[in-house]
Design brief:
This protein is mainly α and about 180 residues long. It is built from eight helices and no strands. Helix 2 runs antiparallel to helix 4 and helix 2 crosses helix 7. The protein is globular and about 45 Å long.
Length: about 180
């Protein structure tokens, strides 16, 4: 939703423009959050795994990913294929961003964590409807898989320093 801003004087206009400019610059400024070599290793590993998963959406695992599309989405085969292809492209982009966009790693970590949360309903659907895919051919295996999604969220946040940034911001608000 776009909210129009009405300015009454040129002084307000310049202050508002400067405020908006400063906000945009602060959002584009690379984060200086330090991470350990272990975090860097796991960030790159997650990036490689995401890129691989993305390519598998587009190629040899496409049918299994189609089975993951939740049943509450439209049952149109073209739409379901679009969901799989789009999520595959997003996974490739997020995986490459985890590897390449080092200066923006905290933001990429947050975006990837949100992505993991957004695709979680597909895993829940697989469990609830007993869909066999990716070697998850029993209810027990599908249930155990559900508990790995929070691990992926934490992996994305920890390996990029986003978790540390979150706690440091909360700590500064308390002080």
């Amino acid at each position: 939703m776009i909210i129009p801003i009405v300015l009454e004087s040129s002084d307000q206009e310049s202050n508002t423009k400067e405020g908006i400019f400063n906000y945009i610059v602060s959002e584009l400024t690379p984060c200086k959050m330090k991470t350990s070599p272990l975090q860097t290793f796991f960030r790159i590993l997650l990036g490689i795994l995401m890129t691989y998963a993305g390519f598998s959406h587009l190629t040899f695992r496409r049918q299994e990913f189609l089975a993951q599309v939740p049943g509450w989405l439209p049952d149109n085969p073209a739409f379901r294929d679009f969901v799989v292809l789009t999520s595959g492209i997003l996974e490739i982009l997020l995986g490459l961003a985890m590897i390449i966009l080092v200066k923006h790693k905290v933001k990429v970590g947050w975006i990837l964590a949100i992505f993991f949360i957004l695709i979680f309903p597909g895993n829940v659907s697989q469990y609830l409807f007993g869909i066999d895919a990716f070697g998850l051919d029993t209810d027990q295996k599908r249930l155990i898989r559900l508990f790995f999604q929070p691990v992926l969220v934490l992996w994305a946040l920890w390996s990029t320093g986003a978790l540390k940034q979150l706690f440091s911001k909360q700590k500064s608000k308390v002080n």
